[in-house]
From TrEMBL:
<feature type="domain" description="Ribosomal protein eL8/eL30/eS12/Gadd45">
    <location>
        <begin position="89"/>
        <end position="149"/>
    </location>
</feature>
<protein>
    <recommendedName>
        <fullName>Ribosomal protein eL8/eL30/eS12/Gadd45 domain-containing protein</fullName>
    </recommendedName>
</protein>
<dbReference type="InterPro" id="IPR029064">
    <property type="entry name" value="Ribosomal_eL30-like_sf"/>
</dbReference>
<dbReference type="InterPro" id="IPR004038">
    <property type="entry name" value="Ribosomal_eL8/eL30/eS12/Gad45"/>
</dbReference>
<dbReference type="Pfam" id="PF01248">
    <property type="entry name" value="Ribosomal_L7Ae"/>
</dbReference>
C-alpha cells in the first residue's frame, strides 16, 4: 500500500503530544487500512488449524485496549531489533491508536513507550468514530488502542507489506 507512513519510532520526541495530520489515517486511507487488517484477521482464522473459540484466538493475536497494549510494551525489552523472541513474552509488530480520543491523556504515553521498544505506531481518526471502527476489528463496541502481536500469522504478513521495513 503506497502512501502509508507510520510514525517512525526514532523520530518521536519526548514531549511530542500533538499528532500531525499527515501521520493519521483518515477517510479512504483509514477504510483501506482497516479493510486490510480485517482480511488479515479472517485469513489467519481460516488458516488456523486450532479450534479455539474466536475471542481466545483473537486475544492471542492482538493486545486489546490501552492497558493491555501498555502492559505488553512494558514487558518488551528496550530496542527489540536484536532481541530473540520469547514465546512467553509477546512482541508487538505494530500499535494502532485512536488519535482523537478524549481525554488525550489516556493514550498520550503509548507513542513514547512504543518508540523505546522500536514498535511503529499508526494513528487513526474518523470524526470521533475511530474508536467504534477499531472496536469492530476486535469484536468489541469500542477500542482506543490495539497492538498486533508478532506471531507469524497471515495478519503479520499483511502488516509487513503495509509497514516500511527498517532492516
Amino acid at each position: 500500500m503506497r502512501g502509508v507512513t507510520p510514525i517512525n519510532p526514532q523520530k518521536i520526541e519526548a514531549d511530542s503530544n500533538i499528532v500531525k495530520e499527515s501521520d493519521c489515517f483518515e477517510g479512504e486511507r483509514l477504510t483501506h487500512l482497516l479493510g486490510l487488517i480485517q482480511r488479515g484477521i479472517e485469513t489467519s482464522k481460516l488458516s488456523n488449524a486450532n479450534s479455539l473459540p474466536e475471542k481466545i484466538w483473537l486475544k492471542q493475536q492482538i493486545a486489546i485496549g490501552i492497558n493491555e497494549v501498555t502492559r505488553v510494551l512494558e514487558r518488551m525489552k528496550l530496542n527489540t531489533s536484536d532481541q530473540q523472541l520469547n514465546p512467553r513474552q509477546p512482541q508487538l509488530q505494530v500499535v494502532i491508536v485512536v488519535a482523537d480520543c478524549k481525554p488525550r491523556m489516556l493514550t498520550k504515553h503509548i507513542p513514547n513507550l512504543a518508540a523505546s521498544r522500536n514498535v511503529p505506531v499508526l494513528f487513526i481518526r474518523d470524526n470521533k468514530r475511530a474508536s467504534l471502527r477499531l472496536g469492530e476489528l476486535v469484536k468489541l463496541k469500542t477500542a482506543l488502542a490495539i497492538g498486533i502481536k508478532a506471531r507469524g500469522s497471515d495478519l503479520n504478513l499483511v502488516l509487513q507489506q503495509i509497514l516500511p521495513s527498517d532492516s
